[in-house]
């Protein structure tokens, strides 16, 4: 069986491998990545979403990469190696999928650290497939075609919608479990759609959006007002239950409504960065135009999604990317682009405006961008918005759940007290 | 069941204690305060049963539970939980409505509550010790009980600066002070002051603490010295500092109040029943037992007992004897050996902060014994190693002082000639070294963060009411040891808390701690992959390995059997004795019995004015006229030859601060000497001076400067160079400059040596932090726009746009300033390049070693590097920086990782360059908290080691202690020496 390498010595994912290999995908966002998995399966890839959660993951991570590397990297690498060692997969027939972003944050090094770790752990032959929009690292067995990009974008936006509606419905459902059932139903339904049709135009999307909204709107609820708590943070720790110790479930059990800003803003943010870069440091006008067009395309889709929710009058719609961007202007410069950059600050402000002034800002211990855009902005935010009630929580292999939860509970106690005072005075 | 009741109960379960109050109507009818020794549930059942029987007499009561370890109890017993800070707030509102601020220190938590104005509550982050447990640790370190600790602190003469961020850091500040003979009363007061600084700086984060302040929690109740430090530092009047009655019950009071608001009365018997019924939850992560059965243990013991060492009664011996002393961080070890390496005398003692006293006692004992057998024995040589090396060597005129690594290697080789790996876990250090061809190949020491080795086990055992050996022994047959992870002490404390919550037994916790110490060593310090990474002939030593549980855990973790000598704890001292024997001079210079009787010693302290470091010196004067001065960063007082001339660090720094020399008419522009502004300074100075500005740079960094800005630092885990920015900006604000210029820069200069030319996120955007967290004067403008300097064409265009917003300026002025800026930057680099070439030539011609400090341009700040460069040049090495080396070469190094930061690309280039020169070696300086260096360190190690060079890393932070650094540097130099000899 032949393993091909490129000039730099990287193992290439070949067309042959596409037919015979199992692809492993890390599970950053449970709903979104399930949809992505379905898309890939429909395109002929045999893939598995890694949902493992055991102590060996951290152990494998600690053993194979530098312990001061950020927690998300440690977990993703640890989870992959744990899977390869688990006996569930044939290491000679398995490839790994990882998203790759560029940028000055050390996160852009994940893929390289993963390869280094694989070498250390005895799997130098396992191909790592980079999923990115920048045309980095080409693989014959996996190409980012325009139609795939469109499908992936659709998966992310559907994911955002399902996550948003589930979070707005679940705390109020009368019959426990109905909301999650609806989500499951739609994930399956969309999977079928991906299988049966290649049409992902705005028309199909609009139709789906409307149907999804109406399905959630039909769930029987009892809308007693509840405290709203937002989650922001480093992208992996913010979303992944493995990294944040099931933060969303924990908050849900505390009887609050959880608000998690979607991932589409992050994608648009990354595209927007390229435009801003050219605006503040100079660069190619053509490149700027291409980015601008792509941004408009993404925003267009996001707007359809927002409109469908607005129309229903039953749910509270998210703000558009442009609105979020405008509102953060006085807080931080648009040039702050590494990691989650100004978007993280913007999400906090958006949450406060949306009535979710209680916020958990989740980050890996020692996260460099978060020193600036997370913890660093808290004082300014609370000065300008006295109602803001923000707790910054660090996640890493040594941090314990009890410590994290205790700090979150303090935030919740304040939140609930203010909530009661407000409701009593009305 | 809703029955009326007069009773309300508040239960407060902290990390080490359980507190309870019972009210009948408005009166407290019962209160208790006890250590729970990790047996929370048992204690709770006992306590509640007592209350039910004797106080309530089966009447129902309102009850709620609070505290950092109370959550588990509340779930098991189905009692309502209230977060402890919130409970405090409730209690204050009810009983002390006039209070403005509450400061509460607990066992492991620190909190501040602002009640008046905009209410706000703050808790310490997960990386902040500086609390009760920290004071406990320090007391153990000083070998005094808490009461004495407190009394001593009330009578202090001077306060030392002690890192206040985290217990581990503070320890590294205190240890050398102890070993240098600092007075206990000063130390205890300084420790309290550190706690105060942490609370004010770290917790309040700039919000002023004023009005009526209430102090709560165990430490503030018990330590009047701590209270005094707080009142002093906050400038509080008597009326405004409030220490309530029942302070330690305050949180429990809040819980009792909360119970009446949020619960319905319940009979305690039902709670007790459900506690009894509730099985310990089984979801905790556990590990396999250390020993499955007694037989396995027996087999283990007999294997370990095979290695023999001979002891001989000194009265049976005639001949020369050799003395070895190992003055470690917490213990002191003394060994006297015969010509045949038999042990004639040995001592292993906790130093209790009294290094000299212990040595005097032992020496007297030895001399007495020698005398009583008619002087047949003569001490013919003596050597000392460890933290206390210089002090003891000077005090007792010993023959040799050797670095620890050499001492340990000497003795390990004695027991196992083909030893290829040594690991020593002592009180506070982990030292590991690999040996290749009879020489030290690489050295790994624990960094400041992963300390907490043996003394951690001891502190923990003490807190739970055991001695360390007792405690460790409990873990031998634990059924399911708890998985506690492998991070630093503070984290381990909370892991233990979590395990307690989940109902782990003492046995399981003990075994878990032993395993986690081992894991810490293997994964954090050695960073091993597999046993092959270590070696095949491994010797373990150090007091911590005397615990069978730790040794077993080590063997299990690496999967091979290792050797522990019967004198595991004495290996350093034994090595010294062997060294003394092998290096005998004519007569030993050791203090005579007569002089020992007259031994006298006095300590004074002063500040050295010889260089801008302004070190605080501790001066020990001895009866033998010897003087020992410590605290200095250089080697000036240590009788070592003239420093070498070439030191690029110093040269660069002096060059930069001398740059501004133009009294411009346009106004004053202040530039902070921080982060990227160091290297970009030539560029900006030329730019602004060309525009006819007077450039004012912020003053030299110092601890005081740092403290002046500490309260505005929002993230306590960011690197020290970044934290220093706050002080620099503060000083510029007070300088009355018209503008403060500190731009955001995503990109740095493009040197084409990497895939991109980024700054790290902290360097790039720190001005955003400044804008958000520091208040400027009205007439001052803070210019922090986003600027790119990598493309001159665009720079000129955008510079005009930016600066014309702040002052009127013409395009052509900008144009000419831009030109001058780029030229100045180029010239600056050229100058450094020339200087570095000169230095290299000098080293080659004079047969000197060159040490390249692989670091960031801002590491040349003496407050950041703590004078490591001076230390190095005092060891007769030429000191270069990675920057100066990288300026020399223009090739690109192929790396396994993304090479995308301008500054970091230079590290790889420098490493590569070092491999090409025989007389060059590299030391990498890493700032604690630097995320990017987590990537670069492994890569640089690879480059060096694959070319047969030693890799040395030194982690630096606000700790102002060169002790550990000296060990590293001396070991490195010794290893280079040995290698050179070997290859010759």
Structural features, described:
The complex is a heterodimer of chains A (426) and B (984). By secondary structure, chain A is an alpha/beta fold. Among the domains of chain A are: 15-144, Rossmann fold (3-Layer(aba) Sandwich); 226-262 and 318-425, Rossmann fold. Chain A is built from 17 helices and eight strands. The radius of gyration of chain A is 21 Å and the shape is globular. The relative contact order of chain A is 0.10. The mean pLDDT of chain A is 91. Chain B is an alpha/beta fold and 984 residues long. Chain B has six domains: 7-96 and 252-277, ATPase, nucleotide binding domain (Nucleotidyltransferase, domain 5), CATH 3.30.420.40; 101-243, Nucleotidyltransferase, domain 5 (2-Layer Sandwich), CATH 3.30.420; 282-314 and 401-599, ATPase, nucleotide binding domain (Nucleotidyltransferase, domain 5), CATH 3.30.420.40; 602-630, no CATH class; 659-825, no CATH class; 829-983, Rossmann fold (3-Layer(aba) Sandwich), CATH 3.40.50. A five-stranded mixed sheet of chain B has the order 3-2-1-4-5. Chain B has a five-stranded mixed sheet with strand order 8-7-6-9-10. In chain B, a hairpin with a 3-residue loop joins strand 1 and strand 2 (17-24). In chain B, helix 3 (84-95) crosses helix 10 and helix 4 packs across helix 16. The model of chain B has no long low-confidence stretch (mean pLDDT 85). The chains are: A alpha/beta (426), B alpha/beta (984). At the A-B interface, helix 3, helix 5, helix 11, helix 15 and helix 16 of A face helix 3, strand 8, helix 18, helix 28 and helix 29 of B.
């Amino acid at each position: 069986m032949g393993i091909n390498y490129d000039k730099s010595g990287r193992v290439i994912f070949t067309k042959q491998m596409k037919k015979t290999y199992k692809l492993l995908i890390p599970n950053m966002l449970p709903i979104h990545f399930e949809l992505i998995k379905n898309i890939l399966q429909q395109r002929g890839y045999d893939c598995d979403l890694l949902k493992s959660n055991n102590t060996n993951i951290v152990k494998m991570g600690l053993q194979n990469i530098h312990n001061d590397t950020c927690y998300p990297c440690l977990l993703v690498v640890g989870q992959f190696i744990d899977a390869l060692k688990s006996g569930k997969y044939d290491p000679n027939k398995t490839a790994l999928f990882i998203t790759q972003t560029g940028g000055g944050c050390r996160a852009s090094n994940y893929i390289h650290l993963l390869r280094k770790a694989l070498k250390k752990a005895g799997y130098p032959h396992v191909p790592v497939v980079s999923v990115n929009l920048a045309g980095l690292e080409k693989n014959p067995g996996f190409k980012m075609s325009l139609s795939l990009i469109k499908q992936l974008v659709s998966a992310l936006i559907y994911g955002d919608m399902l996550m948003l509606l589930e979070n707005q419905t679940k705390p109020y459902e009368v019959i426990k479990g109905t909301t999650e059932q609806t989500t499951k139903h739609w994930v399956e339904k969309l999977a079928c759609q991906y299988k049966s049709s290649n049409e992902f135009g705005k028309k199909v999307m609009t139709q789906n959006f409307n149907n999804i909204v109406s399905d959630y709107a039909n769930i029987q609820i009892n809308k007693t007002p509840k405290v709203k708590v937002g989650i922001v943070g480093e992208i992996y720790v913010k979303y992944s239950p493995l990294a944040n110790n099931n933060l969303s479930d924990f908050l849900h059990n505390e009887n609050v409504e959880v608000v998690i800003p979607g991932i589409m803003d992050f994608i648009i943010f990354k595209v927007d960065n390229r435009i801003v870069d050219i605006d503040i440091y100079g660069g190619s006008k053509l490149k700027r135009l291409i980015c601008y067009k792509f941004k408009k395309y993404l925003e267009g889709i996001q707007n359809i999604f927002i409109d469908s929710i607005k129309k229903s009058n039953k749910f509270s719609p998210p703000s558009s990317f442009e609105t979020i961007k405008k509102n953060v202007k006085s807080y931080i410069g648009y040039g702050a682009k590494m990691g989650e950059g100004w978007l993280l600050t913007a999400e906090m402000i958006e949450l406060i405006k949306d009535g979710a002034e209680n916020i958990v800002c989740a980050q890996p211990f020692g996260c460099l961008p978060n020193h600036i855009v997370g913890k660093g902005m808290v004082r300014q935010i609370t000065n300008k918005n006295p109602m803001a009630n923000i707790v910054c929580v660090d996640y890493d292999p040594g941090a314990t759940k009890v410590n994290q939860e205790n700090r979150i509970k303090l935030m919740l106690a304040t939140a609930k007290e203010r909530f009661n005072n407000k409701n009593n005075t009305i | 069941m809703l029955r009326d009741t007069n009773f309300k109960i508040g239960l407060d379960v902290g990390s080490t204690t359980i507190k309870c109050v019972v009210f009948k109507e408005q009166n407290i009818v019962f209160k208790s305060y006890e250590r729970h020794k990790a047996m929370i549930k048992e204690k709770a059942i006992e306590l509640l049963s007592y209350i039910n029987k004797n106080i309530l007499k089966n009447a129902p009561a309102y009850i709620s539970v609070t505290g950092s370890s109370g959550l588990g109890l509340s779930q098991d017993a189905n009692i309502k939980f209230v977060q402890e800070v919130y409970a405090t707030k409730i209690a204050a509102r009810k009983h002390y409505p006039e209070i403005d601020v509450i400061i509460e220190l607990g066992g492991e938590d620190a909190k501040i509550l602002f009640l008046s104005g905009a209410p706000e509550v703050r808790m310490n982050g997960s990386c902040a010790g500086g609390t009760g447990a920290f004071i406990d640790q320090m007391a153990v370190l000083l070998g005094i009980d808490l009461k004495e600790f407190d009394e001593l602190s009330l009578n202090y003469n001077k306060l030392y600066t002690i890192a206040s961020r985290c217990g581990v850091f503070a320890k590294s500040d205190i240890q050398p002070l102890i070993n240098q003979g600092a007075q206990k009363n000063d130390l205890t007061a300084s420790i309290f002051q550190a706690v105060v600084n942490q609370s004010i700086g770290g917790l309040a984060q700039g919000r002023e603490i004023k009005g009526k302040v209430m102090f709560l929690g165990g430490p503030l109740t018990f330590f009047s010295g701590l209270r005094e430090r707080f009142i002093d530092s906050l400038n509080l009047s008597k009326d405004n500092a409030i220490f309530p009655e029942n302070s330690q019950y305050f949180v429990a009071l809040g819980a009792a109040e909360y119970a009446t608001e949020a619960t319905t009365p319940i009979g305690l018997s039902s709670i007790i029943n459900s506690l009894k019924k509730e099985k310990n939850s089984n979801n905790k992560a556990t590990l396999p037992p250390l020993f499955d059965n007694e037989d396995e243990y027996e087999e283990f013991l007999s294997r370990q007992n095979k290695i023999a060492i001979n002891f001989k009664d000194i009265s049976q011996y005639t001949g020369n004897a050799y003395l070895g002393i190992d003055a470690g961080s917490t213990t002191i070890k003394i060994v006297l050996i015969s010509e045949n390496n038999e042990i004639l005398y040995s001592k292993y003692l906790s130093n209790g902060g009294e290094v000299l006293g212990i040595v005097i006692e032992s020496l007297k004992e030895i001399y007495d014994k020698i005398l009583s057998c008619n002087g047949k024995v003569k001490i013919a040589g003596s050597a000392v190693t460890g933290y206390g090396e210089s002090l003891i060597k000077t005090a007792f005129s010993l023959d040799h002082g050797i670095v620890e690594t050499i001492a340990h290697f000497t003795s390990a080789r004695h027991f196992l000639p083909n030893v290829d790996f040594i690991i020593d876990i002592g009180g506070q250090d982990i030292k590991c070294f690999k040996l290749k061809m009879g020489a030290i190949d690489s050295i790994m020491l624990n960094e400041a963060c992963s300390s907490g080795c043996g003394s951690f086990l001891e502190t923990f055992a003490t807190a739970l009411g055991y001695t360390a050996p007792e405690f460790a022994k409990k873990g031998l047959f634990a059924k399911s040891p708890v998985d506690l992870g492998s991070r630093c002490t503070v984290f381990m404390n909370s892991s233990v808390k979590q395990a307690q919550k989940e109902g782990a037994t003492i046995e399981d916790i003990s075994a878990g701690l032993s395993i986690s110490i081992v894991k810490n060593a293997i994964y954090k310090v050695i960073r091993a992959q597999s046993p092959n990474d270590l070696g095949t002939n491994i010797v373990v030593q150090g007091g911590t390995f005397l615990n069978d549980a730790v040794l077993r855990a080590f063997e299990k973790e690496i999967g091979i059997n290792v050797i522990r000598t019967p004198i595991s704890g004495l290996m350093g001292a034994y090595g010294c004795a062997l060294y003394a024997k092998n290096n005998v001079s004519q007569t030993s210079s050791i203090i005579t019995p007569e002089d020992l009787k007259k031994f006298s010693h006095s300590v004074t302290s002063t500040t050295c004015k010889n260089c801008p470091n302004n070190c605080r010196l501790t001066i020990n004067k001895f009866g033998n006229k010897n003087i020992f001065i410590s605290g200095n960063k250089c080697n000036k007082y240590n009788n070592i030859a003239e420093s070498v001339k070439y030191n690029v660090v110093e040269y660069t720094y002096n060059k930069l601060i001398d740059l501004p020399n133009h009294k411009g008419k346009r106004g004053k522009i202040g530039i902070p000497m921080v982060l990227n502004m160091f290297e970009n300074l030539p560029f900006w100075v030329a730019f602004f001076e060309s525009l006819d500005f007077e450039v004012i740079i912020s003053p030299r960094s110092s601890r005081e400067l740092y403290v002046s800005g500490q309260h505005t630092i929002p993230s306590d885990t960011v690197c020290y160079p970044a934290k220093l920015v706050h002080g620099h900006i503060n000083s510029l604000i007070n300088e009355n400059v018209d503008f403060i210029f500190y731009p955001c820069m995503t990109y740095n200069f493009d040197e084409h040596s990497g895939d991109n030319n980024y700054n790290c996120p902290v360097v790039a955007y720190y001005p955003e932090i400044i804008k958000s967290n520091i208040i400027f004067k009205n007439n001052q403008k803070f210019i922090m726009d986003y600027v790119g300097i990598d493309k001159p064409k665009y720079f000129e265009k955008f510079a005009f746009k930016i600066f014309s917003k702040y002052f009127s300026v013409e395009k052509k002025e900008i144009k000419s300033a831009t030109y001058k800026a780029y030229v100045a930057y180029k010239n600056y680099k050229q100058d450094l390049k020339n200087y570095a070439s000169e230095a290299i030539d000098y080293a080659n011609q004079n047969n000197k070693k060159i040490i390249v400090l692989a670091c960031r341009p801002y590491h040349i700040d003496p407050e950041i590097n703590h004078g490591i460069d001076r230390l190095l040049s005092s060891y007769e090495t030429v000191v270069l920086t990675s920057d100066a080396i990288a300026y020399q070469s223009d090739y690109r190094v192929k790396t396994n990782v993304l090479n995308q930061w301008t500054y970091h690309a230079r590290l790889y280039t420098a490493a590569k360059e070092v491999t090409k020169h025989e007389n060059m070696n590299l030391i990498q300086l890493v700032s604690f908290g630097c995320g990017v260096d987590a990537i670069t360190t492994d890569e640089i190690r690879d480059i060096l080691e694959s070319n047969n060079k030693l890799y040395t890393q030194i982690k630096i932070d606000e700790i102002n202690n060169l002790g550990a650094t000296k060990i590293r540097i001396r070991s490195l130099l010794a290893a280079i020496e040995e290698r050179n000899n070997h290859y010759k």
